[in-house]
Amino acid sequence: MRTWIEHFGSAWQWSASGVAILFRSEVAARMELAAAIVGVAWLIVLRRSPAEIGVFGLLAMAALAVEALNTAIETIVDEISPQRSEFARRAKDLGSAAVFFMLTTAGIYLVALTAVSFVTR
Predict the structure, then answer these.
(1) b/e string for 77-86 if b means 16 or more Cβ within 10 A?
(2) Exposed / middle / buried, residue 59 (Cβ in 10 Å: 0-12, 13-18, 19+)
(3) Is 67 part of the annotated catalytic residue set?
(4) Rounded to 5 degrees, what are φ and ψ at 34?
(5) Which pLDDT score is estimated for 82?
(6) What is the reported pLDDT for 120?
(7) DSSP string, the chain
(8) Which among 67, 74, 79, 86 is annotated as catalytic?
(9) pLDDT-above-70 percentage for the chain
(10) Average pLDDT over residues 91-120
């Protein structure tokens, strides 16, 4: 049991380090966090349900998770292939596409809740 607790503590530290690296190194992550905060505030202003706000929060967290994975991909690719290459371009573009799809999903959800709020008034 003690090993599990020690592992949990270590995992927590590694995760915190990853979060710090993400927000220190990636402007996009900071922008996405700011957009998520604005989105949550907007949904509160619209008086959406806690469940709807929670789903948006989960989508925003998922977008940040995909951003972290994209950053990891970019870091690995830059280490493996510091020169320009087709492999590096494709890997980075695919990571970027994943971020785009996640942000688009969160954005569509936010727009849909906004539309419903104005249509049902």
Answers:
(1) beeeeeeeee
(2) buried
(3) yes
(4) -60, -45
(5) 86
(6) 87
(7) -HHHHHHHHHHHHHHHHHHHHHHHH-HHHHHHHHHHHHHHHHHHHTT--HHHHHHHHHHHHHHHHHHHHHHHHHHHHHHH--S--HHHHHHHHHHHHHHHHHHHHHHHHHHHHHHHHHHT-
(8) 67
(9) 99
(10) 97
What is the chain's length? Answer: 121
49-62 pLDDT, tens digit each: 999 999 999 999 99
Contact at 8 Å (CB) between 92 and 68?
no
What long-range pairs does 50-57 form, CB within 8 A, spacing at least 24?
A: 52/113, 55/109, 56/106, 56/109, 56/110, 56/113
At 95, list the tokens.
Answer: 């990571």
Q: Which pLDDT band holds residue 10 (cuts at 50, 70, 90)?
A: very high
pLDDT digits (tens, 9 = 90+) for 35-46: 999 999 999 999
Dist. CA 91–CA 110, nearest whole Å: 29
Residue in 106, 39, 34 with CA at minimum distance from that of residue 66: 106
